[in-house]
Design brief:
Helix content: 25-40%
Radius of gyration: 20 Å
Number of helices: 12
CATH architecture of the largest domain: Alpha-Beta Complex
Bound molecules: nicotinamide-adenine-dinucleotide, zinc ion
Structural class: alpha/beta
CATH topology of the largest domain: Quinone Oxidoreductase, Chain A, domain 1
């Protein structure tokens, strides 16, 4: 089969690989019909995540058709059209039983902090991902769900991570009616978080980025006010100004490990690898939220510690909430919102790339060229 293969930082190819086989009676093999590239894939592409091994296939956002099932799979059969959450999880351990699917205790032999994620380095289990023609899906009765007839493929693939994550980030903010919600990052996750904040009762939503075309999308898709941090000396001061000098009620970090805005943070993280990511947006979040407020972190960070302003968070009495998204938990409400027409997730898709040209997709998304927001990948195109 054809599959995206990692050959080192900034080097991606499409190569011939063996079609995955059933390795356990609970496995399914899924023929991928549509995949996507996530901001998290960029952290891998840039060589930011430890133990990203040469030869692995990325891709944790994908949908497809069931090709084959193991002998104990009961809920799926060959031919089913399925969406697969980015988490690999068992569904029955202590953590899964509490809905913490992204923290499953049974699927990642390499770390205990995080569970399994498709195509996201050996620190999350070393599972090959879905930017390929076929993918092996463990615990096939647990994660995957048959795509409802009314749901478009583009929307289904976005539900496997980006949309669920934006929604989850807003949920973790514990938004109450009329709250002012600030979102750092106008990528797919930030755009969805901003849009979701309204559904949870926000009275005001402000999105911050330095890419003007993405801020335009935040105004149009998420009905948000926007702030370009590159035009300001001090974005935190501006946030204070805009909130009666109290700070926002809820601030969401949807930028993550490769945030811009501080040369020192960038050099010590991306270049010197002294930190598990540059927490510039996270520190701005801690500074911009009001005392007693909540900071929700959707942005991903590596396992090495980062220079986060913890003392300020402590002294301000903040609530910090975060996780890799337990994707399937968000689906019932999101299905309702989409079916009732509250929004169309695919409105943020800007690029469709055949799998054979996925390296171009990574390059365009990484360098933020051609007004890129979200790239879908089509195997067999
Ligand atoms: N928690 C999860 O389960 C989960 C799931 C998906 C993605 N993520 C993470 O969410 C983050 C965003 O993902 P995405 O797909 O939207 O990525 P993206 O790269 O498209 O978007 C990130 C945006 O942040 C902006 N940005 C950079 N520095 C900033 C700063 N200091 N302040 C404000 N904005 C800044 C960038 O210009 C960019 O528009 C990534 O870190 C990704 O790994 C986490
Ligand atoms: Zn992702
Ligand atoms: Zn589990």
């Amino acid at each position: 089969m054809r599959a995206m293969v990692y050959r080192g930082p900034y080097r991606i190819r499409v190569e011939e690989k063996d079609v995955p086989r059933i390795e356990h009676p609970n496995d399914a093999i899924v023929r991928v019909t549509l995949a996507a590239i996530c901001g998290s894939d960029l952290h891998l592409y840039h060589g930011m995540m430890p133990d990203t091994r040469i030869g692995t296939t990325f891709g944790h956002e994908f949908i497809g058709v069931v090709e084959e099932v193991g002998s104990s799979v009961q809920r799926l059969k060959r031919g089913d059209r399925v969406m697969v959450p980015f988490n690999v999880y068992c569904g029955s351990c202590y953590f899964c039983a509490r809905g913490l699917y992204s923290n499953c205790h049974n699927v990642n032999p390499n770390a205990t902090a995080v569970g399994g994620i498709y195509g996201y380095s050996h620190t999350t289990g070393g599972y090959d991902g879905g930017q390929a023609e076929y993918v092996r899906v463990p615990f096939a009765d647990v994660g995957p769900q048959i795509i409802p007839d009314w749901m478009a493929d583009d929307d289904a693939v976005l539900l496997t991570d980006a949309l669920a994550t934006g929604y989850f980030a807003a949920q973790l903010g514990d938004i109450v009616e009329s709250d002012t919600v600030v979102v750092f990052g106008a990528g797919p996750v930030g755009l969805y978080a901003a849009r979701s904040a309204w559904l949870m009762g926000a009275g005001r939503v402000i999105v911050i980025d330095h890419l003007e075309y993405r801020l335009a999308k935040a105004r149009e898709f998420a009905y948000a006010e926007t702030v370009n941090f590159a035009e300001l000396d001090d974005v935190v001061l501006e946030m204070k100004r805009q909130t009666d000098y109290l700070g926002a009620d809820v601030v969401i970090d949807a930028a993550g490990a490769e945030a811009d805005g501080s040369l020192l943070q960038q050099v010590t993280s991306a270049k010197l690898k002294l930190q598990g990511g540059s927490p510039t947006a996270l520190n701005w979040a801690i500074d911009s939220v009001r005392k007693g407020g909540t900071v929700s972190v959707a942005g991903a960070y590596g396992p090495v510690f980062s220079a986060v302003k913890f003392g300020d968070a402590m002294n301000k009495g903040l609530t910090l909430r975060m996780n890799q998204t337990p994707v399937k938990r968000q689906w019932p409400r999101l299905f309702e919102h989409i079916q009732q027409g509250y929004f169309r997730p695919s409105d943020i898709v800007t690029h469709r790339i055949p799998l054979e040209h996925i390296a171009d997709g990574y390059h365009i998304f990484s360098a933020k060229l051609d007004d890129c927001i979200k790239v879908l990948v089509q195997p067999g195109a």
